[in-house]
Amino acid sequence: MMEKNVANTKRDGLLHPSIDKVVVIEGTHAASHAVKLARVQVIAAYPITPQTSVVEKLSEIVSDGDLDAKFIKVESEHSAMACCIGSSISGARAFTATSSQGLALMHELLHWAAGSRLPIVMVNVNRAMAPPWSIYVDHNDSLSQRDTGWLQFYAESNQEVTDTVLQAYKIAETVSLPVMINLDAFVLSHTSEPVALPKQEIVDEFLPARKASFKIDTSDPKAFGALIGPEAYMEMRYKLYRAMEDARSVIREVDRDFAEKFGRSYGGLVEEYMTEDAETVLITSATAVSTARIAVDELRSMGFPVGLMKLRVFRPFPVDEVRELAKHVRKIGVMDRNVSFGATGIIYQETKAVLYNAADRPSVFGFIAGLGGRDITPETIKEIFSYLMNHDEPESESVWVSLKTSDADQGARPFPETGAGIRRSEGVK
Amino acid sequence: MIEIRMHGRGGQGGVIAAKILASAMFKEGRFAQSFPSFGVERRGAPVLAFTRVDDKPIRLRTAIYEPDHLIILDATLIKSTNVFSGLKRGGTILVNSAGPVSLFNFPYDYPAASVDAAAIAVRHGLGTRSIPIVNTAILGAFAKFSGLVGIEAIVEAIREGVPMKRDENAAAALEAYDSVESVADAPANGSFPSEDNGTITVK
Hints:
Chain A has helices spanning 27-37, 52-63, 77-89, 100-105, 107-115, 140-143, 158-175, 200-206, 233-262, 287-301, 319-326, 346-356, 378-390, and strands at residues 19-26, 42-45, 70-73, 94-98, 121-126, 151-154, 179-184, 192-198, 270-273, 280-284, 306-311, 313-315, 331-336, 363-368, 399-400. In chain A, β13 (331-336), α12 and β14 form a beta-alpha-beta unit.
């Protein structure tokens, strides 16, 4: 019985020489194991659903003596980030994890970490903001931290969580900026699936010990966090801005290095799926990408020229990649698992913004879906493609997909019925 | 792809069972995924847990709406919730019950079996008489009944996946395995055909 299907060639990706073992683990633990492999020295965290199992597992790893790190229990997320900042200034590799309200409570210190140019890595399990209370996924928590100076990654699979944590420390320590890795509440955080854990010695080669270019050192006293006047603040802000701009090439380079050592690549800032000859492309992020691949395959098999762009990195925004895509497609749809009240979905705004001054500007449509854990299924994605293929220009700024409405909901914009839906006989309009 | 949906109550171990099942199927050379019903689990509250298995990487990341197989850890859920929602025509049903499966009047074209997982769990010291932990016993029964996964892989995954009483859990799975028939040999279990829409309702 144990030999059943061992010749499954689809599992060849799990046979790379860099792999120590393949385990079936949940997304939170995929992060914990990567933190161990990254030889993090300080972990400070406060529990919050659905993040808690990230640091729960780490506390076991540290207490079992499998990771030589200081695990600091704190009374709030604000203090957790303060511990990360303090230890990172002293040259240590620091880690924390949180979700939603916890991330919001950290807000002040997120600016502090980035302004101090500290390469802290944080896992944020994306959870909708309250009220009303929700423990389920959407991306408003992390996107609310857009302007704090943190790099933001969004993961599609548990393997990508592990691999991105390892890449994140390398990127963070190269550009001297903190990195936030986001994974969808439950849909990734509590889903168990196979994850290849790499060998420690190969991780050590890829990610050597941190060398801080400046740090608190009692034998070499320096002042940190001093007041600065108008004569220099702006220049320091410009340096931070440049570091974020330069992070784009660093992200691509680190992903290439990673592929060489570990045999897996995520395309840098974006991954394109079936876009080469596509006329209509959907841009989206996180676990919705995984499900959207299925919808794209189905539509392709029916002859529709559709494709997908996975936004792996939101900050820095993949400006070049989106402009490049715009050169050869007719329509772009953006599916946001978030909303900016008074405007539209956030990734939709950003996508339109980078195209406004570009030479090629296809119609860009915005869709809001999956808020507060509403399931995003292949049917959701197909509904969106159906809308895209049946409309020449966007009718409204953001279309709310599968919104339940009643007569009382005056002014709400339900997803318009396209009538026929998608049929084999229909051509692309 | 094969999709399995587990219906239980908080404390019965359904979430861990779904994960152990995924691990066992992965050990046999396939790809597998498991997840709970994305909710807050409380002792006694209805809990769903899902397992997917395929011979290629699994990209679908949604709840399971149309399962191929049902595992029911608590038979009282049959009356109080719609456990059959979306069950594919011909899908199998495995239920934890001391009584024969004919008690439930499942439609005859859905192969079904019952296993007294509670008694088996208690015999092996898993949980208490009032709250037996039935997850490992039912997995043993599922291995035999469905034929989808070997008992060796189930036992190995149980030993790795349970936090304590590894021998007792493994023994419970083996006893349950021996106590049921394979679906290929399962007798007809009901007296009425299912409705034409491919889903069944309790009569």
